[in-house]
Amino acid sequence: MAPGQPARPSRWAGSGLAVAAGLAVAACAASVPNPAGPAPPASPAPTAKAGTTSAKGPPAPLTNVPVSAADAQRRAVALVLSGADPRGLASADVIYQEFAAPVRYIVVFQSMLASGVGPVTGTQPTDGQALSVLHPLVGYASGTPVFIKDLDHTGVTDLGRPGHPSLYRRTPQGVLVSTGPVLRAARGNGAPPPIFYYGDGSAPPSPLASAAVSRPSAARVTIPRYGTESWSYDSRTGRWTLTGGGPRVAVANVAVQTVPYKQAVVSHRDGTTVPSARVIGTGPAEVLSGFPGRSGMAAPGTWSKPHLDDVTNYLDRNASPMVFQPGPTWVILAPIGTRVTTSGGN
Fold first, then answer.
1. Nearest of 333, 207, 321, 191 to residue 262 by alpha carbon
2. Which residues contact 335 (CB under 8 A, 6 or more apart)?
3. Coil, strand or helix at 296
4. Are residues 170 and 119 in contact, defined by beta-carbon separation less than 8 angstroms?
5. How many Å from the N-terminal Cα to the C-terminal Cα in the chain?
């Protein structure tokens, strides 16, 4: 495995994600080197690479899809969205789905620009935890002083609406923003590190995991108190499409990452809190992926992110890094009790 790339992803095959089984593997995962990004001096060196330069151009760090040299070096822009059908998801490289009130989408743009993205919502504690390793420019609509302070204590550049109102516009659809003006509001480039493992570039491409791989054409993710998301695999495009239970998107990989949720205090005076995902630690994971022109794939495993500035590693049942396919990735920050069931395929 080459330096600078994340460890191979983890997966769950078949139906029903068992939290206890995932936690058993997690003990092994804790000792696996962090794939990319800054880490404390005691941390092992990165274990994965984002890919190699192709004739079409260098790989985008967050998708491994060839882009121009300029695009590959562009800084990431992360925007926090909500709503039944947020605008701009089709241009995103990575989307973190958090089950707060309402459901939130932490959307990362790097390989492509996007206009009129929204509705933009308020920042919450998960944002800095998920984004710090990417050192992005972060846009949001509002936030309590404590939540904004939490964000500013991580490795992001705060370009939220409270301090930069001219970047945003209020519309009947909510507060919207475009990534171009956000990029121009900060100086310098600085591409993010790769955060997923795409294999060693060998042909044919490596399977998703070294154990417990299934080949489904459909998956259902049932989230306690939030209903069920239905995903369908299109072998022609090599994409998983969210066909029910959320905004319609098509992505190369879906990572169901089971995490604890805690109540973050919005107002001590009013006693109001919001659910907040905790993405530092370790736990069960299941990854959906696939090869274009062939079947989908699913596999169980674990995720591990020991520190704020570590990349999240996705490891299979043999504690080997899971191999994502080039393209956008949807990360479901799944509450404990979430179940994944797969069907179809062979």
1. 333
2. 99, 223, 224, 225, 226, 258, 259, 261, 275
3. strand
4. no
5. 30
- Give CA–CA dist 9/60, Å, rounded: 18
Rg (CA), the chain: 19
Cα-based distances in Å from 174 to 92, 105, 170, 204: 19, 15, 6, 46
Looking at the domain covering 74-184, what would its CATH class be? alpha beta
Sketch the domain layout of the chain as residue ranges: 19-38+195-343, 74-184
What's the token pair of residue 177?
């923003």
C-alpha–C-alpha distance, residues 50 and 161, integer Å: 32
What residues form DSSP beta bridges with 79? 107, 139
CA angle 343, 195, 52 (to 5 degrees): 100
**Helix (H) and strand (E) counts for the chain?**
5, 19
> How far is residue 298's CA from residue 255's CA, in Å, rounded to a whole number?
10
Q: What is the DSSP string of 95-123?
A: EEEE-SSS-EEEEEE-SS--SSBB-B---
- The 10s digit of each residue's pLDDT in 325-341 is 999 999 999 999 999 99
Identity of the amino acid at 45: A
CA distance 25 to 220: 23
Say how far apart CA 56 and CA 326 lie, in whole Å: 14
Instruction: Report the candidate in 278, 251, 323 with the shortest Cα–Cα distance to residue 91.
Output: 251
d(CA 311, CA 306): 9
Decide the pairing of beta strands 313-316 and 261-267. Answer: unpaired
Task: Please state, as a whole number, how many other Cβ atoms lie within 10 Å of the Cβ of residue 303.
Answer: 28
Q: Could you tell me the pTM of the whole model?
A: 0.86
List, for residues 267-304, the tens digit of each pLDDT value. 777 778 899 999 999 999 999 999 888 889 999 999 99
Distance, CA of 241 to CA of 2 (rounded, Å): 31
User: 3-state class of 33 per DSSP?
Assistant: coil
Classify strands 157-158 and 296-305 as parallel, antiparallel or unpaired: unpaired
